[in-house]
Each structure stands twice: as C-alpha cells, then as structure tokens.
Write a structure and sequence with these properties.
Number of domains: 6
Strand order of the largest sheet: 9-8-7-10-11-13-12-14-15
Oligomer: single chain
Number of strands: 35
Shape: globular
Largest sheet: 9 strands, mixed
Strand content: 5-15%
Radius of gyration: 35 Å
Length: 1113
C-alpha cells in the first residue's frame, strides 16, 4: 500500500502545489485505516477546500480524518521542496498544535506528530520517511508513526476547567478563521453583512478582531449551553450543529437567534464551518453530565461557573481580556458590596426586608457572568432561611419560591454587552436558583408573563436611552433585548445599582454622544489640556449617578479603579458626586503595583485582582431630600490579598458600620476622597506653579508601536524604512509581529507617511540615560501616532534644554525630573497615572536661521510675570542674552592676561559666593554679569531645587497631585550656589553633552570614574551578551551574564530611581529583552551612567546642606 502510494507520488511533477498531493494522501489514509493494523469501519479523509500554496495566512489544516462522526485528527501538508522547520511556517503550526489535539505536519519526507497531553501540545513522534523516493528503506517505523496518529482522539474532558481550556483553544482557532475570512471577503458578503448586523444591534464600530471574537464566542457558548441541556434530554443522541438550536434556552430567544445567524454564515465558508465542527466534536468527547453536576454543586461562598469561564477567558484571548478591562470579581468583594447595600436599605431607607423588599429594583449595569446578582439572590435566600428556619425547610422553600416569582425575576436587572458572559450569566443564575430550591416550571404555571426569565439583557448600558434600537427583519429578539434595556433605563425606578464595570476603554464602542454629554459635567471648569476621565468605569459611575437622579433616591455600590478618588483631573467629578449624593463611602483596597505601594507597617500590599491598578469599593447614597452637607467616609485596607478577603468577609457579616470609617472633609479646589497631609499646603501653594514658570509645554511623543518605531541603532531604522517601502501591509504585520491596527496607528497610514513626508532619522530619549533612534516626519497618526510636532521642533537640530516631569506621582518617593536635549518619548518616565510632559527652555521661531547679529531666533519659555517676580526678589536683572555678555567678559579677561595685565575678571561667575578668599590672596574683580541672571540660570536653579531630598520628602503629598512647584529665594548667594549645583546635575544627566556648557566634566577624566569591568565570557554566549542581570552587594558588582560584570557600583547607585525606574537595572534589562550584546560604546555608556548617579547622590546631599532651612527664604 505504501509502495503504491510512493509510485503515484513519483509521477507528480516537482512544480506541483500542495493540492496536487491531497487526493493520493486522502485515498491512502482511508485505505490504511481499513487495513488489518487498524480495521476502522468508516474512515473519511477530507481535503480542506480553500487551501493554497503557502502565504501569510493560517487557514485550516489540509486534511481532516474522521471515522464516521468520530474525529481522529488532521494533516498539514507542505510540498517536498519545503523545510517544515522553516520560520515562515511556525506561526501557522503553532496555532494548529495549540488548538488541535492530534495533528501531523509533513513535507512527505519529514513527519511530525503533535498530540495533547493533559491539555498541552507535545511532539509525540518524529520520523523521516521519504514518499518521493521509491528506493526508500523499511516502512516499519513509518507505520508505527501512523498507528500512533490513528490512536489519537478528541481530547476527553471530565471537569469544567478541562473543558474550558480545550474549548478555548478551538474557539480561538475559529476566531482566527473568521478574521481571515473577513479580511478576504467582499463588502456584500454574508460575513460582512453579519458584521454590519452586529454593529447595528450590539456594538458600533466593532473592529474585525472583536467581531471575530464575538462570532466565535457566540458559537462556543451557544453550543456549550446546548450541550448541558442535551445531556439532560438528548436521549443518547449526539449533539450536532443542526440539532443544537433545539436545546438552547427557550426563555432567552436571543441566544437561538444569534446562533442561527452565525450558523447560517458559517455554513457558507468551509474553514469556518470546519472550525465550528471542532467545538461540537469537543463537547461530544466530554463528560457533560459530570461537568454539569460540578457546576450545580458548590460550597457556600463559591462561584462554580467561574471554574469554566475564568480558565476559558485566560486561555482564549488574554490580550483582548486586558483591553476590555473586564475581571472576575472575587466573592468576598461581591458579598461585601451586596450586604452593604442590603444593610443600607434596611437602616437608611426603611426597607425592612432589604433586597427582598418588592419595592427594591436592583440593577447591575455591567453584569458580566452575573456574580453580583447571584450574591443578591444568595443574600435574600440566607435572610429568608434565618427568618423562617424554625418553621422548617418546606416553609423556607415556599417563601423563597414566592420571592423569586414575584420579585427577583421581575425586579432584578442586568445589562451585558458581550455574548459569552451574557450566556454564562443566564446559566449561572438559573443553576443557582434551582440549587436553592426553585423550579422554573413554576413560571409556566402562573399567568404572569413578566417572570419567565431573568431580566439580564444583551445591551450596551451606555447607549442613548432615548434612541430606539435598529430593527432586524426575521430576528426580532436581538433588537428586543436592547429595547427592554432601554425601557429599564427610561422608566424603571431603580433603587440600587451594584457591579464591577470595565476599567479601560474598549475601543470606540462606549463613545456615544449621550454618555459623552453626561461626562461633560465632570469636566466643567477644569481648564486642563488633557482630561483623562474617559475610562469606561467613569462612564458607568456617571450612568449610575444619572439613573439615581432620575429615580430621585437610591444607592450605587461598585468596585472600580481608585484613580478617581485623588486624581487631579477628577476633582470636578468628585465635586459633582458630592453635589448629588448625601453619603459617600470609599473603601480603598490599594494594591497599585505601578506605584510600588507598601503597607504602612512595611509589609507587602497586594491587589485583590490580578492587575496593576489599585482599586476601591465605592458606595454612594442619595436620599429623597438632599442633606445640608455630604458626609464622606474613608477607610484604607492594606496587606496581602488573603487578609483583605478575610477582612471583607468578617466586616460584611456585621453591616456597613463594622468597617472602621474615618470622616473626611473634602475641600475646594480638589475635593479629595482620600486622607491627605495638609500641614504644609499653605506653604507649598505660595510657590510658583511650574506651568506659570515655563508656560509652553506638552506631552512627549507617543508612538503606539514602540517595538517597531524605536530602535537601538540607525541601521535597523533604515531597514524599517526600506521594509515599509517594499512590503505589503500583511507582510509588514507578519515580519514585525504587529498587533491589530488601532484608532491612532495603522500600518497603511504609517507606510503612506514614510512615502510622502521625508522621513528623518533622529535621536530620541526613550528611557533615563537611554538614547535610541526613531523616524520623525511630524505627521500626527503617521509612522508615530503622536509626534507632538510643534514642541519637538524646538529640539530637532537646535540647541535646547527641556525639563521632563509629570503631573501625578507614581512610586513611594518622587523622582520624576530629567533634562533632555533631544525629543523624548512619553514612557521616558513611568507614565501611569499621568503622562509625562516636556517643558522646553527655549522656543524657536519657525525660521531657525540666525539673524544678522548671529543671534538665534528664539525666545525663553519663561513667563514675563515670573521673570518680573523673581528679578525683584533676587535684586538681579534678567538678561535674555546673558551668555553673550559672559562671552564678551571672557574675551576681555583673556586679552588682558595675554597683554600681561593679569586676569580682568574671575574665571567663574559669582566668585564671591563660590569660596572664601584666603588671607593675602589678591582679589579678582567681579564680573559685571554677576548682576544679571539668564534663562539657563533659572533652569539650573529649578533642577537643583527639584533634586533636594528635603523638598521631595517635605512636599511628598503635594507632589502626588500636580506638577512640582518652584520656591523662590531672595538670597543671591543661595541662588548662585543652587544654579551651580543644577548646572552640574544637568551636565551629569546629559553625560557631559550640555549644549550650553562645553566645560570639562568628570566624563573627560576616566581615571576618576571608580568603576571597572571584569569576568570571563560564559560558554555559548557572545561577548558581553546581556543574559542574567543581577547585583552582588558584597563585591559591588553588576552582572550582565553569569561571567561578566561591572565592578564598583554601590548599592545606593544600583537602587537609584529616576522617573519611576531603577535606572541601572532597567537599562540592562531592556537590552536583555532585546537579546543584545554590549558594544564597547555601550560599556562606556553604562560606566558613565554609574558615575553620573554616584555624583548625583553626592550633589543631592550638598544641595540639602546648602539650603539648610525650609521654607526657602
């Protein structure tokens, strides 16, 4: 049989495509499956209909092998001339083996078998057998390989987690097929029409990737719910794509309609159809009854469905999950919020039964999987049991059934935008009420049509409630869901709102005119250049505020990002909330790893979610009559995650008053919802605002594609330019592994920008002490998304200094100040919660030419009011061209010295303040310029002030909320000394390349550096390859790999922070990530960094010693 196959293959020409081999291979695999070795009854080998010669696509495996309806595996074929280990095939192979549990990769000469073991892909066999060589040796090993393949089967799962992981892998493949098919489809194709349908009825402006996910998730979760029901009443039949619709919940018709829509389109596209069949195969190979039972049975405090949904989400598309900003809320948090709402209803709204009171209309506007609604149901059941336990279980069950029928199914609402969690929410809530004793048959027996289902609707909370949804002929249930939600928004008197809204901006779907207009109330009078209050969680807070204003009273309790409680741009938001609500409770759970938060006792502080952003539980209470003053209560909860959960569990059992609240008194202008140390507020607020010293400023550049747009050397940048000129959009995406295009950056617009706008390769300050190369054209949303052209032109081919700082502090101590002489990237300082800004010292006119006197056409970026104030306080006159005055003095002094008359002036400015004259030492005439100060003096003075350790610690609270303020001294000597310190610091931080100071620095004297290199190159590594970055405190060594190191690096130098980064470590780890080896120039650069930081530490101590007294006088 094998020899016959080889003879037939030998007749195929070398120029043949993969498809030429399919008929022979399909026939061979079918015959071999029937042979004595296997004896399969009904083997079928089916070629994939759309497969072509390799291109940048994933497609579907070339051949699918089944035995009747039972799936066996797949074969991916390449032509014999190709190397199956070639780089160009690896993305395709990786996706297949991660999604398919039994697959062969072959070029008819080499054969690899990949199968799953415990849900993970492993190479189970690897053999050489050349079907193109009729003289090949024994086929015994090859036949063993084939038998191992035919013994493979669909991955059998027995637990919710196992099924979730397996189903996620196959759903991901389906999503990839949909996205590829969409990319190739015409505008009038069924797939494009389906996308338009989703946009009209669910999500506007959905991206292709998001749409593909929606289609895949619709099929996966519809089939999962169908499989659960099929296990109960399928009578031994197999689940199929055709009969699945019969097992979907009839009381939620939208699921059947969505499934029908997607199935119709899938049946017309072979790759999508085959990928969809994989989901059915997986479900049929799983122990669904056992899985269903595990979802029903759970201990108190557990959320059993999360055993399925969370692993699915994590495996399926973790990047999209992060982009959505959606995270499962741990049960202790949910219960604390729900029990607090129940307590407030009983104690402040006279609702004796709390959530069980039929006048309480409850809404979760970001329902997710229904966790909060489930907790509310459990709270009601627990209270019923507590109140009726003495009457027996039958009375408890009867009362609970009555409350479900007359209240929960009629007055508990949820809105969810995404199909997967929507489906899970209905499943979870149904399973939970059934577990607690409710039977949905009861809803059919009564005459009330308003309690046939849970009122969880597939709808966008933030859509305009005054705008009816678009009609969809033949699928009325889809717009009807949105219409039902709209009715709730407009007319239902919601009294309590709970939930965990998404934290981030999920594309453009939540940028509707209605919600953006409501957000304007949070932006009134801010006078900010950039107002960062467009995150989704803020929109949900604003929605809840609006809805309770419509009701006239109520509570909303949510866990959200805690950025709004003390963000400077959120001050009007806080004021608005205080105007609306009578009582506000902020339970700050902290956990911000970006800030490096540490508990007050010095212990570790952990987030309650697996995210970096800190969070808080926020409860807002509005009474029917506004109280005279809004009461704001606050509490911190620090420590490990387990401790926080335990604390919340304990406190929730005793009501809201069990939490140790402190009363705050928020005040104008910031209205902070946190405790603040205000002891030096009055002192600090007298200082000059940085924006009133340097009035012209802006954010630094934002590329949106750092890995592509910023490179280590010019040759690599030139390579990028060449690739963008010659490669297609698809080829560029594959070559540089670029993610999907976004709103602000696309490959197409980047290509067009480089073609039209004369790209220029320039230096960019990317991280502290880290100058790299980029391409600058100046076009917004071009190769660089936001080049900030107007401000950056002041640094391109011009002498300038810029002060780089940020508005809100991140980290334990303030270190957000750096100089630059180049354009700079926004992540030069760690950019959360606010982007860094660049304050140039000089503003150049559009014409960069010098005038007839040789003077540059530039003006200092200093406000006239500030100059006037500081000049008066110092008793010095401001001179715009002070450097030219000093230059003339230097020339006069040199001329006199040459003429034998001695130095006319001191060699340094402000000589009388520099040092004490020894007795008998001849005095040198002070310079006339000592009565003046100039732009650079102000820059250096500010830079020295901002490096005072006392300044940073004394005003730590104030530095968290706004740009640093500048205290002004009236002491000429102190001013002169601080200018000198600042000058030295700038020289150090620019590594001796200050455009306004060409004097010698320590960098010109390597013998004073106090650092050396040592060690031997490890085997199997290139010389100075950055592979293992670590610090040895005893030897004062920084290792770049296991052998080579820098020696002479003190601990305080190694740990020194600039802009939120541990600089000495960060610089090396970035190069480790890029798999770089250090050149001679790199080694010298790192040594200079160490010297600069060591000297900075010394100068910072000198600055503090010199200032002596605060506030500065």
């Amino acid at each position: 049989m094998i020899e016959l196959l080889k003879q037939k293959i030998a007749k195929i020409k070398d120029t043949a495509t993969e498809r030429s081999y399919y008929p022979l291979l399909c026939a061979f695999f079918e015959e071999y499956a029937k042979s004595n070795a296997l004896k399969l009854r009904n083997p079928q080998a089916t070629p994939e209909e759309t497969s072509t010669q390799y291109e940048h696509r994933i497609g579907f495996p070339d051949i699918t092998i089944r035995n009747g309806n039972d799936l066996i595996g797949w074969i991916e074929v390449k032509i014999p001339q190709e190397n199956i280990n070639a780089e160009k095939f690896q993305e395709q192979f990786s996706r297949y083996k991660e999604s398919l549990e039994n697959i062969i990769f072959t070029n008819l000469r080499e054969w690899q078998l990949w199968q799953w073991e415990e849900g993970e892909a492993k190479k189970m066999a690897d053999t050489s057998f050349d079907l193109t060589d009729i003289n090949n040796a024994s086929s015994e090993e090859f036949e063993g390989f084939l038998i191992k393949f035919f013994e493979g089967r669909a991955y059998q799962t027995r637990t919710p987690k196992q099924l979730a992981l397996a189903l996620a892998k196959k759903t991901r493949l389906l999503s990839q097929q949909v996205e590829e098919a969409l990319d190739k489809s015409k505008e009038d194709s069924d797939l494009q029409k389906l996308k338009e349908t989703f946009e009209k009825t669910l999500i506007q402006d959905v991206s292709e990737h998001q749409f593909a996910n929606m289609v895949a998730e619709t099929m996966a979760y519809s089939l999962f719910l169908a499989a659960l029901e099929h296990s109960r009443r399928g009578n031994g039949t197999e689940l199929t794509l055709t009969n699945a619709i019969d097992y979907l919940p009839t009381n939620v018709p939208i699921l059947a309609d969505l499934y029908g829509l997607v199935k119709k389109v899938a049946s017309t596209i072979p790759t999508i159809y085959e990928a969809t069949r994989l989901l059915v195969d997986q479900l049929n190979a799983s122990e669904i009854e056992r899985i269903h039972q595990k979802l029903v049975e759970h201990k108190p405090g557990e959320d059993p469905v999360i055993q399925f949904y969370e692993p699915f989400l994590k495996e399926y598309d973790p990047k999209e999950r992060e982009a959505r900003g959606v995270y499962y809320t741990p049960k202790p948090i949910v219960d604390y919020i729900v029990k607090s709402v129940d307590w407030i209803l009983r104690n402040k709204f006279n609702k004796a039964k709390g959530l069980a009171e039929e006048s309480v209309y409850l809404l979760d506007p970001a329902t997710g999987t229904g966790t909060f609604l489930m907790s509310a149901i459990q709270e009601i059941h627990g209270n019923i049991k507590k109140e009726n336990d003495s009457l027996g279980d039958e009375m408890v069950a009867r009362e609970f059934n009555r409350v479900v029928l007359s209240h929960i199914l009629k007055h508990f609402y949820g809105f969810e935008l995404l199909i997967a969690p929507y489906a899970i929410a209905h499943l979870k809530l149904t399973l939970e009420v059934e577990r607690l004793g409710f039977d949905f048959v009861n809803t059919k027996d009564d005459a009330d049509k308003d309690n046939d289902r849970f009122k969880v609707y597939l709808a966008n909370t933030l859509d305009d409630p005054n705008k009816p949804p678009a009609k969809l002929f033949g699928f009325d249930s889809i717009p009807q869901e949105s219409e039902s939600a709209r009715e709730v928004k407009k007319n239902v008197p919601i009294l309590a709102i709970v939930g965990n809204p998404p934290y981030s901006n999920f594309g453009r779907m939540n940028r509707g005119e209605w919600i953006l207009n409501l957000l304007k109330d949070y932006k009134k009078g801010l006078k900010e250049r950039k107002i960062n209050i467009d995150d989704d969680f803020i929109k949900f807070i604003r929605f809840a505020q609006w809805k309770l204003e419509q009701t006239g009273q109520g509570i909303f309790a949510m866990i959200t990002s805690n950025t709004f409680i003390d963000g400077i741009t959120h001050r009007q938001m806080r004021r608005s909330l205080m105007d609306t609500f009578d009582e506000i409770y902020i339970y700050n759970l902290h956990g911000n790893s970006r800030k490096g938060e540490i508990a007050p006792d010095g212990g570790k502080d952990e987030n309650v979610f697996n995210i970096q952003q800190g969070v808080s539980i926020n409860i807002f209470v509005k009474f029917s009559e506004k109280q005279k003053e809004t009461i704001v209560k606050y509490c911190d909860l620090w420590g490990l995650r387990g401790y926080k959960f335990q604390t919340l569990l304990e406190e929730s059992g005793w009501g809201l008053n069990a939490t140790q609240w402190k009363t705050l008194s928020p005040k104008d202008p910031n209205w902070f919802f946190v405790e603040k140390d205000t002891t030096v507020d009055e002192e600090y607020e007298k200082y000059e605002k940085l924006v009133e010293v340097f009035p012209y400023y802006n954010s630094a550049i934002q590329t949106k594609r750092d890995a592509l747009t910023i490179q280590f050397d010019e040759s690599k940048v030139q390579e990028v330019i060449e690739d963008f000129n010659k490669l297609s959009v698809k080829e560029i995406r594959a070559e540089y592994n670029l993610p999907a295009d976004g709103r602000d950056w696309t490959i197409r617009t980047a290509k067009e920008d480089l073609r039209k706008n004369h790209p220029k390769i320039v230096d960019v300050l990317y991280r502290p002490f880290d100058i790299r190369k980029t391409i600058f054209t100046g076009k917004t949303k071009g190769f660089i998304a936001y080049p900030r052209t107007e401000i950056m032109l002041n640094f391109l081919d011009k002498d300038n200094l810029g002060l780089f700082t940020k508005r809100q502090m991140q980290g334990v101590s303030w270190s957000y100040i750096s100089p630059t002489k180049n354009i700079a990237e926004s992540a030069m300082h760690f950019s959360t919660p606010s982007n860094p800004h660049l304050f140039p010292l000089y503003i150049y006119n559009e014409s960069s030419q010098s005038n007839l006197l040789g003077q540059e056409n530039r003006q200092p970026n200093l406000s006239s009011e500030f100059i006037k104030t500081f000049s008066k306080k110092l008793g010095l006159e401001f001179d715009l061209n002070l450097q030219q005055r000093i230059q003339r003095e230097n020339e006069e002094s040199e001329h006199d010295e040459v003429a034998g008359r001695g130095k006319k002036y001191s060699s340094i400015r402000w000589d009388e303040y520099a040092h004490t004259k020894r007795e008998g030492e001849q005095a040198v005439k002070s310079r006339p310029s000592d009565d003046y100060f100039g732009p650079e003096d102000i820059f250096y003075y500010a830079y020295a002030i901002f490096h005072s350790p006392t300044y940073r610690s004394r005003y730590a609270e104030q530095l968290k909320i706004d740009f640093p303020r500048l205290p002004l001294t009236g002491d000429k000597k102190l001013f002169a000394q601080l200018v000198r310190f600042g000058n030295k610091l700038v020289n150090l931080h620019l590594l001796g390349e200050n455009p306004f100071d060409k004097s010698k620095t320590i960098f010109d004297e390597p013998e004073k550096w106090g650092i050396k290199i040592g060690g031997a190159k490890p085997e199997n590594l290139t010389d100075w390859k950055v592979a293992d970055v670590h610090y040895n405190e005893k030897d004062k060594r920084v290792y770049v790999n296991k052998g080579q190191y820098f020696e002479g690096v003190e601990k305080e130098v190694w740990e020194f922070m600039i802009g939120g980064y541990q600089v000495c470590e960060k610089w090396l780890k970035d190069r480790k990530k890029a798999e770089r080896s250090l050149s001679t120039d790199d080694i010298k650069h790192y040594m200079k960094m160490v010297v600069a930081i060591r000297e900075t530490i010394r100068l910072m101590a000198d600055i503090d010693y010199t200032i002596r007294k605060w506030p500065i006088e």
